[in-house]
């Protein structure tokens, strides 16, 4: 994988795209037309295409979302989009960065809610065809990393991820994770912070010295996904995902591996197709004789989610994953990673992970 695939959109190009949007609005006003902002819509699976080479991307036939000044239901969003584009324009010109939260508290009455403002930023990124992290508006990163990894921030300060007992906070922007160095043989991506901390307490990184341990604490943020993409682009490391044996865990793994539908145009910058599902597999429940008391019945929502996952473009031809989903549906049970604690509190760290990683690692890395 060529690291050039992780390239940035030049600042001058982003400036030009914002200026073009504003110029188009002015032209519409000058000709007596109510101004409209148009952007691709990613509200259903027909709006995206999926290929193994680039994962999700917007379909050429995707529908268009129109944010019109003349319509009462969208006039506020129209104004908000222009306001935030002005902020982005100034930030890029001045080479400054700002958090989403800082922007929200400048004009909370305009944005309505933090979540609403976040959706507007997503729409602007999609309209400009610029990844969100290049707009100089950053979100607080929740991900953690530990293990055989060193990097420098923008000021040149070195961080050694071997020197931590609970994980190093992943930076919100790649500018603070430069000059990455590692001798790791693989990356283990853990769904939950609780499991991450359990592995840290059990000395996983010391026992498997040539490893990197990462968690996005549930659905991953951009900073966590950017780091994984960078490790894949620059170091071609094998990557394994440890998630719950339930529809929610599978969907989290899919976001890491394939990207998300709502941000389909960013998948080429964030997705890591090489990620393999290490566990927990539904078949592990029987293989390891996990007691019924450690299992959870699938809810009605779980059944619906599992059936929907089988139809997703990235899963519908994957016979291995489909068979695991079918096993889950047939049993009517789901299992969290912690179910292995029923065998032993150290079973996950000392037995399950080493044996499965050894089995899944390419022979040339052994």
TrEMBL record:
<comment type="similarity">
    <text>Belongs to the TOP6A family.</text>
</comment>
<keyword id="KW-0799">Topoisomerase</keyword>
<dbReference type="InterPro" id="IPR036388">
    <property type="entry name" value="WH-like_DNA-bd_sf"/>
</dbReference>
<dbReference type="InterPro" id="IPR002815">
    <property type="entry name" value="Spo11/TopoVI_A"/>
</dbReference>
<dbReference type="InterPro" id="IPR013049">
    <property type="entry name" value="Spo11/TopoVI_A_N"/>
</dbReference>
<protein>
    <recommendedName>
        <fullName>DNA topoisomerase (ATP-hydrolyzing)</fullName>
        <ecNumber>5.6.2.2</ecNumber>
    </recommendedName>
</protein>
<dbReference type="InterPro" id="IPR036078">
    <property type="entry name" value="Spo11/TopoVI_A_sf"/>
</dbReference>
<dbReference type="InterPro" id="IPR013048">
    <property type="entry name" value="Meiotic_Spo11"/>
</dbReference>
<dbReference type="Pfam" id="PF04406">
    <property type="entry name" value="TP6A_N"/>
</dbReference>
<keyword id="KW-0238">DNA-binding</keyword>
<keyword id="KW-0413">Isomerase</keyword>
<dbReference type="InterPro" id="IPR034136">
    <property type="entry name" value="TOPRIM_Topo6A/Spo11"/>
</dbReference>
<feature type="domain" description="Topoisomerase 6 subunit A/Spo11 TOPRIM">
    <location>
        <begin position="186"/>
        <end position="357"/>
    </location>
</feature>
<keyword id="KW-0539">Nucleus</keyword>
<keyword id="KW-0479">Metal-binding</keyword>
<feature type="active site" description="O-(5'-phospho-DNA)-tyrosine intermediate">
    <location>
        <position position="105"/>
    </location>
</feature>
<feature type="domain" description="Spo11/DNA topoisomerase VI subunit A N-terminal">
    <location>
        <begin position="76"/>
        <end position="137"/>
    </location>
</feature>
<dbReference type="Pfam" id="PF21180">
    <property type="entry name" value="TOP6A-Spo11_Toprim"/>
</dbReference>
<keyword id="KW-0460">Magnesium</keyword>
